[in-house]
Amino acid sequence: MTDYRTLDAGGQEIAVRKDLRVPMRDGVTLVADAYSGVEDKPRPALVALSPYGKELQALALTMPPQRRPSPMWDGCIEAGDIGRVVAEDYVHVIGDLRGSGGSEGEHIGNYNAGGVSLGQDAYDVIEWVAAQPWCDGNVGMIGISYFGSMQVLAAAERPPHLKAIFVSGGHYDFYETTYHGGVMWFMPRAAREGRGGDSGWAFTDRVRSRMLETYSPEEIKERVAARLADPDVAAWPNLVHVLNYPTNHEAWFDIVLNELDGDWYEERNPINLAKNIEIPVYLQIDQGRGWTVDGHVELFENLRGPKRLDIGSYPPMQSRPWVEEHDKMFRWYEYWLKGVDNGAMDEPAVSVFVEGSREVVTADQWPPKEVEYRPLYLRPHAKLSAEPEPMGTAHAAPDGFFQAPLTVTDKVEILRWSTAPFEEPAELIGSGAAHLFVAIDQDDTNFILRLWDEAPGGSRQLITSGYLKASHRELDEDRSSEGHPYHPHTRAVPVEPGEIEEYVLRLYPFAATFLQGHRLTAELSNAEPLADEHNALLPPDAFHLPVGRPVTHTVYRDAARPSRLVLPFTTTARGR
After folding, report:
1. Taking every annotated instance into account, which residue ranges of this chain make up the domain Xaa-Pro dipeptidyl-peptidase C-terminal (predicted)?
2. How does pLDDT run across 237-275, given as a tens digit for each residue?
């Protein structure tokens, strides 16, 4: 260990304790750095843990925050503003998880599946930190995304000195982290391998495949062959490479081989562990993050102790190094770690920024207002209407589109339907659903539905989205309700080509007011648009696996097959 002093970019003097060796209960040693003020006194500590490498996080001392699309933006610098943490008189402890950076041991499987529980390691780190002379025994945690997920895993282990957590942008339902509605999402590949603006895991040569350890070579060969038989997988070069050379991409290989939900993802799932968490939890997430907003709401509803849910404004990608939400975080920790009665617990449990009106709505539950689920029907001439279609197919001919695979075209076909301009503001808060009656000429496809707020001048903002792989259309009727479809994703059922099926997509939670003169527009495709107003804000790898076969989609919207959106209105205004 080296003790020395340095200056951050603001001229602040900081004591740095480098390469601290933290013993785990199984004999493995992790490493961590600790940053604090130079005055020799104990302080509360904020712990950050990930596989991204503590040296990368140290760039927060020297690099100004970068917003996308800056070429300096790195999605893995997520442990927080070191200088700000020190200035607020905390010790900032940044550690490498086992199997990464300078820490010993091996990381097995995806996130927290297999091997030693990452929550167990976090418990040992927290208790070790609390026992150090530079810590006063009060410990919280810090960081977004992977760092945020680690906070939930740690809290579920109930370390005695972990007094509260502040989680932003974490990943909770591990299946939904990689398969949105059964459609594979590529962003986890970027976080592991270092692609498209992410440095990725540090020293991934000590990450082992749980699949390779669990199954015989013959079984692995059979499972790989089954995945390569999927034309979507077979058409994508990276997936062909991963499946043929698994030891180069162990964690990603495990995900690709597990395309269905079940024990693989449920083991140590933070949503399931939430019942063990009794300490105060603050959950923060920005709109536009789709499945992560959904996960924050689900986690909030399962927590038992003091809790807060804060849904912020669009756009979804924060600065790197991460500096947003620090004011809220330090107010939270001032109350729970320093014992300052600053009124942090005198406010409603839920706070939601409403796009459009730009108002903040508060309540003690989600959604923060009473909602009425109302339909908007797909109608001829690309219209959305509160009134259903009275005509049959002969007069309300179906819409349709043909999508060639992206191996032969770069054009993504999109169907659109829009309301008339709203005559008065219409506020919607909650989740929703899309009921689409569709026939396809293949046994599978993707459905990607996105809702936009279009202003009179033509500018627009994404409001929410929904995804569903056609073969994952099965619903759990007992867990589904109006505006809340639930797909178990435990098996894939091929579609009978030409058969008209009702596909019910879950629309992720959102909060938006459509102002007078604005329109609500729904867009349907089976592939991700290569660039638009929303995707330009995201890293290059934040897209979904395209369909690897040509598919003709016929969308019915007649009196017998009323394709529609079901949306959470809080006002009396309706789109016409």
Report:
1. 330-566
2. 999 999 999 987 888 999 999 999 998 888 888 999 999
Residue 439 near residue 291 (C-beta atoms within 8 A): no
Give counts: helices (H), strands (E), the chain: 15, 26
Residue 135's contacts (CB-CB under 8 Å, 6 or more residues apart) are 42, 43, 44, 45, 91, 129
Domains of the chain plus CATH, in order, are 2-211+246-347 (3.40.50.1820), 372-569 (2.60.120.260)
Q: Give DSSP secondary structure letters for 121-183.
A: HHHHHHHHHHTSTTEEEEEEE--BTHHHHHHHHHHHT--TTB--EEEES---SHHHHHEETTE
List Cβ neighbours of 115 (8 Å cut-off, separation of 6 or more).
Answer: 106, 107, 108, 109, 208, 210
Tell me the average pLDDT across 211-236.
96
Integer Cα distance of 254 and 466 in angstroms: 25
Length of the chain: 576
Nearest to 353 by CA among 134, 471, 509: 509
Tokens of 302: 């399962």
For 112-143, the pLDDT digits (tens) are: 667 789 999 999 999 999 999 999 999 999 99
pLDDT mean over 347-373:
97
Q: Where are the alpha helices (DSSP H) in 468-520?
A: none
Exposed/middle/buried for residue 395 (C-beta within 10 Å: 0-12, 13-18, 19+): exposed
Angle between helices 146-156 and 118-130 (to 10 degrees): 80
CB 160, CB 57: distance < 8 Å: no
Distant-in-sequence, close-in-space partners of 210: CB < 8 Å, separation ≥ 6 = 108, 109, 110, 113, 114, 115, 254
Q: Give the model confidence (pLDDT) of 521-574 as tens digits.
A: 999 999 988 777 777 666 667 789 999 999 999 999 999 999 999 999 997 544
Report the distance separating Cα 310 and Cα 446, nearest Å: 31
Structure tokens at 64: 């100004």
Amino acid 468 reads L
The answer, as to whether pTM is greater than 0.70, is yes
